[in-house]
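Students often ask why inverse folding is considered easier than folding. One informal answer: many sequences map to the same fold, so there is more than one right answer. In these notes we will look at a single instance of the problem. The structure comes first.
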């Protein structure tokens, strides 16, 4: 196996130790990183500049270190999702009943 084949297999996650190395790629394209990470292109570049995600470059091709992207996404704070807002109709009904029109309770 020549060096180029070895590097191609490594980028696709075919070389490494353990199950994670066989199932996860070492690097992914920027387009894949945007899709998988749910972050915008500019946000990924901004975070790469801050050292939060690792980019590698070969000629004109930019690849993203998969482990660093995964670490970045898992380090983001959890979203605080509250109850849905009260509609105007529900608000008026609650007011007529003398109740506080805050938010719906599940």
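Output (designed amino acids):
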């Amino acid at each position: 196996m020549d060096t180029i084949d070895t590097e191609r297999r490594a980028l696709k996650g075919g070389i490494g130790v353990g199950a994670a190395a066989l199932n996860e790629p070492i690097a992914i394209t920027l387009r894949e990183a945007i899709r998988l990470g749910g972050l915008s292109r500019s946000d990924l570049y901004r975070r790469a500049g801050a050292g939060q995600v690792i980019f590698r470059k070969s000629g004109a091709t930019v690849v993203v270190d998969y482990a660093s992207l995964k670490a970045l996404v898992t380090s983001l704070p959890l979203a605080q999702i509250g109850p849905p807002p009260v509609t105007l109709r529900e608000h008026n009904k609650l007011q007529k009943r003398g109740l506080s029109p805050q938010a719906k309770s599940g």
